[in-house]
Amino acid sequence: MNSEHLRGSGCTLPNAIGEEIDLSIAEAKTLRRTGADGTILVSWRGPQIILGSVRAEVEKLGLSAGDTAFFVFGSDGTFGVEPMDEFAGLQSQMLALTGGVSVDDDLWETLADRVDLAAGDRDAVLAALSARGDARIVELAGTHAADPAG
User: Fold this and answer.
1) Is the pLDDT of residue 142 over 90?
2) What pLDDT does residue 65 have?
3) Closest CA to 26 of 18, 34, 17
4) Of 30, 43, 82, 106, which alpha carbon lies 20 to 30 A from 75's?
5) Residues 54-98: tens digit of each pLDDT
6) CB atoms within 10 A of CB 73
7) Cα–Cα distances in Å, from 148 out to 55, 89, 91, 123, 141?
């Protein structure tokens, strides 16, 4: 979360979200909020998709600038905000930041799958994450190397 979320500004979303929520260029869609009353507007009227204010969710959840949370778009036309559990294990945090929820077999293979790599060795995964700018996951991986049980 950042100060713009806290003050109630809308925010841009990756255009790939459009496909996930069945939104095309020049369209707008109203989604039902799951964590607050009412609806939220998502529109694609310019170069990027814009999500309306998430201030109601931020306030209800007690989030602050710097907190990590996920925007959750339901297949049933709903929208919610889910904070990442600060106390979750390191593996869970790394997976959550890539959209994963559980380790199937091997952490690095699972992460590799989440970042579209064919092979899942640690160095290749970290290089791919660094290249995409996923600094937080790389930071967590360094902590994980020091404490693999985390």
Assistant:
1) no
2) 92
3) 18
4) 106
5) 999 999 999 999 888 888 888 899 999 988 765 467 767 777 777
6) 18
7) 36, 10, 9, 15, 9
DSSP 3-state of 52: coil
What is the full DSSP assignment across 62-119?
T--TT--EEEEE-TTSEEEEEE--TTS-HHHHHHHHTT--S-SS-HHHHHHHHTT-S-
**If you ran DSSP here, which 8-state letter would residue 41 be given?**
E
Residue 75, amino acid: S
30, amino acid identity: T
Q: What percent of the chain has pLDDT over 90?
A: 39
- State how far the alpha carbon of 36 is from the alpha carbons of 4, 30, 80, in Å: 18, 14, 8
Q: What is the pTM of this model?
A: 0.63
